[in-house]
Amino acid sequence: MTGEGLATLTRIMLVDDHPDFRDLMVTLLQNQPDLEVVAQAGTMAEARSQAATSKFDVVVLDLGLPDGNGADLIGELREANPDGAVLIMSASLHPTNIQRAMREGADEVLDKLSTPAEVVGTVRRLGNA
């Protein structure tokens, strides 16, 4: 909370190659008064471009992108925005992929089947960390 009693706005970048999933996430997150989706990307290349021009607090990042593994982006995202958090949200949560993402600097991992409340709660917590 800010000194005026208003919630701090958490800015979010979504990186997922499935437009329908991104649309659902935008709807879920934008319906929260303290969350704002400021950038979206469907590929690693788009994510790099967005990271260079957008200020974000949390990146929701899929691992399975058409032009590579999302874990390869984590270092670049951190460099572009050192105070931002990285939430991996993927349907392919093989332990090897999770370990790699955590080694690269991911803050948290959620399955795409997580409940809306889990997603919103995790984004809020990471955004306010």
What does this structure look like?
By secondary structure, this protein is an alpha/beta fold. The chain has a single domain (10-127), classed as Rossmann fold, CATH 3.40.50.2300. Helices cover 40% and strands 24% of the residues. The protein contains five helices and seven strands, in the order E-H-E-H-E-E-E-H-E-H-E-H. The protein has helices spanning 19-30, 44-53, 74-80, 95-104, 116-127; strands at residues 10-15, 35-41, 58-61, 64-65, 68-69, 85-90, 108-111. The strands form two sheets. A five-stranded parallel sheet has the order 2-1-3-6-7, with helices on both faces. A two-stranded antiparallel sheet has the order 4-5. Strand 4 (64-65) and strand 5 (68-69) form a beta hairpin. It is globular, with a radius of gyration of 14 Å. Keywords: DNA-binding, Phosphoprotein. This is Response regulatory domain-containing protein. Pfam families: Response_reg (PF00072). GO terms for molecular function: DNA binding. InterPro entries: CheY-like_superfamily, NreC/VraR/RcsB-like_REC, Sig_transdc_resp-reg_receiver, WalR-like.
